[in-house]
Design a protein that fits this description.
three-stranded parallel sheet, 3 helices, Ribosomal Protein L15, Chain: K, domain 2, alpha/beta
Length: about 150
C-alpha cells in the first residue's frame, strides 16, 4: 500500500455551506439567519454561559476556599534517587538539573526521605525532611540548607 492509493470513504468530505451568495443559491438575502433579532445581526447572539436572564450556574454555585498567592512550590527529589551520584559528590540544584532529577527549580528543591541511601554525599538544597537528613548523615554524608 502507498499514499497514492489511499481514497477517502464516500461522504466523509463535505463541502461547506456558502451562505449569502444570491437568491438563486437558496441561501441568499438573509443568509439562513431569519429576519431581524439578536442572532440575525453581525456578531450577535448571547455570550457564553448566558441562560436567558436566569441566574447563571456560574453565579449560583457557592464559592469556597481561596488560593494562597504567596505559596512556595518546591521541586521534590526522593532520597533513593540520589544513589546515582558518586560517593562524596556535591549535590546542588545545578547537579540535580543536569542529572534530570528535576525539570525546574521553582522556589527551591526539597529532598524527601523516601528510600535509603548507601553512600556519603554532600547535599546542598533549599529544604530537607528530618527523615532524609537522618538517613544522609547516617550514611556518612552532610546536609547544608541554602
Amino acid at each position: 500500500m502507498d499514499l497514492s492509493s489511499i481514497v477517502c470513504p464516500a461522504g466523509s468530505r463535505k463541502k461547506r455551506k456558502r451562505v449569502g451568495r444570491g437568491l438563486g443559491s437558496g441561501h441568499g438575502k438573509t443568509a439562513c439567519r431569519g429576519t431581524k433579532g439578536q442572532r440575525a445581526r453581525s456578531g450577535g447572539g448571547p455570550p457564553p454561559g448566558y441562560e436567558g436572564g436566569q441566574m447563571p450556574l456560574k453565579r449560583r454555585v457557592p464559592k469556597r476556599g481561596f488560593t494562597n498567592i504567596f505559596k512556595k512550590k518546591y521541586a521534590l527529589v526522593k532520597l533513593k534517587d540520589l544513589n546515582r551520584f558518586e560517593q562524596n559528590s556535591i549535590i546542588d540544584p545545578q547537579a540535580l538539573l543536569k542529572e534530570g532529577l528535576v525539570k525546574k527549580i521553582y522556589d527551591g528543591i526539597k529532598i524527601l526521605g523516601d528510600g535509603d541511601i548507601d553512600r556519603p554525599l554532600i547535599v546542598k538544597v533549599h529544604k530537607v525532611t528530618k527523615s532524609a537528613q537522618k538517613k544522609i548523615e547516617a550514611a556518612g554524608g552532610h546536609v547544608e540548607v541554602i
